[in-house]
Amino acid sequence: LLAPTEMSSPSLKTAAYVLIGVGALTMLMGFLGCLGAVNEIRCLLGLYFTCLMVILITQVAAGLVIYFQKETLKEELSHIVGSLIENYDPWNNDERNLQDAWDYVQTQITCCGWTGAEDWENNKILINHSMTLYPCSCSNSSKDVQAERRFCNLDVPVNGTATYADWPVHEQGCMDGVEKWLKDNLGVILGVCTGVAVIELLGMILSISLCKNIHSEDYTKVPKS
């Protein structure tokens, strides 16, 4: 079985903690914003503005980290996926969710392994079966992909043994597949990120406007001597 440290990395842990923190902050921010707007409480609106600004800065910082540390992240992902493939076991229910996620990636991106199908030659179960089995999620046949079992049998093994070159699987590695998907959908990703940033900026502007209006109303209510 994989040790917990083998399936994690400092960068991924940091990213997970950042996402959890941003999610919690977003929920708190929405509550404070609604409460401040309904009851016209300036301090809550100011806190709402501060939360929005922190989230926006965090998003920009996260984007810069991903851009400048992409090679480090790629190496860490390579290690994580390599460990997953090496210890992949269809009968191990403890790792079922993680293995299902990897099967989904290979099926949707139509890829096999991280750098290629040769990564699966390190799998212990496939080695014990002389490579006459291959991962169904890698298969280029829709029949195999829809199979409930995780490993499929090679129809005609050569002399009882085989290599990944004999498998009916996709040649593309998932690393190249993910990069290609990101490049193909770069416009959509940038559009969504820009849209979110614009909405956050509008929220900041509206909160400032409400604060000014409340301040003006409070000033006019002050009796003149």
Q: Largest sheet, if any?
A: 2 strands, antiparallel
CATH architecture descriptor text of the domain at 83-185:
Orthogonal Bundle
Q: What letter string, H or E per element, gives the SSE order?
A: HHHHHEHEHH
Mean pLDDT across residues = 79
Q: Please report the total strand number as a whole number.
A: 2
How helical, in percent, are the residues? 55-70%
What oligomeric state best describes the polypeptide chains here? Answer: single chain
Tally of DSSP helical segments = 8
Spatial order of strands in the largest sheet: 1-2
CATH topology of the domain at 83-185: Cd81 Antigen, Extracellular Domain, Chain: A
Ends apart, CA distance between termini: 80 Å
Q: Tell me what portion of residues adopts beta-strand conformation.
A: under 5%
- Label the overall shape: elongated
Q: If you compute it from the alpha carbons, what radius of gyration comes out, rounded to the nearest whole angstrom? A: 26 Å
The top level CATH class name of the domain at 83-185: Mainly Alpha
Low-confidence stretches: 1-9
Q: Class by helix and strand content?
A: mainly alpha
Protein name: Tetraspanin
Organism: Mesembrinibis cayennensis
Subcellular location: Membrane
InterPro entries: Tetraspanin/Peripherin, Tetraspanin_animals, Tetraspanin_CS, Tetraspanin_EC2_sf
